TrEMBL record:
<keyword id="KW-0328">Glycosyltransferase</keyword>
<keyword id="KW-0808">Transferase</keyword>
<protein>
    <recommendedName>
        <fullName>NAD(P)(+)--arginine ADP-ribosyltransferase</fullName>
        <ecNumber>2.4.2.31</ecNumber>
    </recommendedName>
</protein>
<comment type="similarity">
    <text>Belongs to the Arg-specific ADP-ribosyltransferase family.</text>
</comment>
<keyword id="KW-0521">NADP</keyword>
<dbReference type="GO" id="GO:0106274">
    <property type="term" value="F:NAD+-protein-arginine ADP-ribosyltransferase activity"/>
</dbReference>
<dbReference type="InterPro" id="IPR000768">
    <property type="entry name" value="ART"/>
</dbReference>
<dbReference type="GO" id="GO:0003950">
    <property type="term" value="F:NAD+ poly-ADP-ribosyltransferase activity"/>
</dbReference>
<keyword id="KW-0520">NAD</keyword>
<dbReference type="InterPro" id="IPR050999">
    <property type="entry name" value="ADP-ribosyltransferase_ARG"/>
</dbReference>
<dbReference type="GO" id="GO:0005576">
    <property type="term" value="C:extracellular region"/>
</dbReference>
<keyword id="KW-0964">Secreted</keyword>
<keyword id="KW-0800">Toxin</keyword>
<dbReference type="Pfam" id="PF01129">
    <property type="entry name" value="ART"/>
</dbReference>
<keyword id="KW-0843">Virulence</keyword>
<keyword id="KW-0548">Nucleotidyltransferase</keyword>
<dbReference type="GO" id="GO:0016779">
    <property type="term" value="F:nucleotidyltransferase activity"/>
</dbReference>
Amino acid sequence: MASLRSNRYVNKSISEFQEANRSPIYGYKKQMLVTLEESAEKLHPFVNDIMKYVDDAKQKCNRQINILTWDESAAIYLYTMSTPFFSALNDTLRAEDRYALKPWFPFLKLFLNALEKLPSSATTVWRAVSGDTDNYSLQDDVKIWWSVNSSSTALNVVQIYLGDRGTLFAIETIHGKKIDEYSAFPDEQEVIIMPGTFLKIESEPLNFIDRLLVVHLKEEAIGQQNHETTNLNSSPNANVLLPSLPIENFAFRSSPDVM
């Protein structure tokens, strides 16, 4: 089941990653909050046994912390389970036709509402793209990641699925949402990078033995909430690599099969 989880942290290609983050997610905020069961009613065509997964999530999710409702906690748990649910959501988030997301709006409303309730975390997290690194564009100083992007504070969690070459993002986040207390796999130390996050390239990418491109990104707080235009000039430390990058002993390995 590891291959199902890997999709959350490592995209299979640069194009898949860019497609997922290409466009904003419009429309879900107008939805009324509903139960997790109700949010899944229109997802049967996309996820077989969806109600079984929902029932499992409701039974196993963390109900000990009062920050979230039962349904909100279960929505996060469902997102992290080793089921086809995340892959189906990820495929839809990548669709050029944003209307394809409409059946997912009730779940996205519940899920993102839950994440917004959690305290923001300022920490360094990791995310990756496997395969050839040549097609990733670094021409823009500032990127906006429009999708739901999973990352981990533990490099080894991402490393397992990266394979023998790829792009590794070291991200200094200030509004990341730590979900380990609500996850089906708390040891993965997962942090969600929220849709619409501004990320600035902090330094020239590090080419590590021609097999790994390490890109240092830093979340920009300016304009975070309303996407207002702002002057995002280069940082005075733009040529300084993140000093804490623990990649000296990075061990490449064959990645597990990815669905």
